[in-house]
């Protein structure tokens, strides 16, 4: 199954209300960012990277929380690395899910150094990834729209960190 099939299988289309709400939020943030650019408080590249990050996170939160149907049950798995135990027992589906969770916040990590307009350390990428993932997992638990699990936070944080390392490395290469 390719990424597009996974995406359309697990996500319903956005409602008009969701599109309008996100569009208003995006517009407000865009106005604020471009005013900051006009006042020379941030660079244009930071504003563009910030808007791309907001758009990306909107899609991520929609696909992992808001477009999922509520189950009515608060589901959670509190054992750390339980998913890798399943992989060791031969679960290819769990391996695929773990790898997809690592990839999920990789683009956010790529954008972070551009948002901050400087190289960003690996631990900041990890911390930001863990924070974003923690918000996703908490929303899934509170709204009964998925499985709260530490493994997802670890995998998402790792993917964000790797993206941050690569992007910061590219910035280092272009500085010389």
TrEMBL record:
InterPro entries: VanZ-like. Residues 52-167 form the VanZ-like domain. Pfam families: VanZ. Keywords: Membrane, Transmembrane, Transmembrane helix. Coiled coil: none annotated. Signal peptide: none annotated. It comes from the Bacteria. The chain crosses the membrane at residues 20-37, 43-66, 98-116, 122-143. This is VanZ family protein. It comes from Sporofaciens musculi.
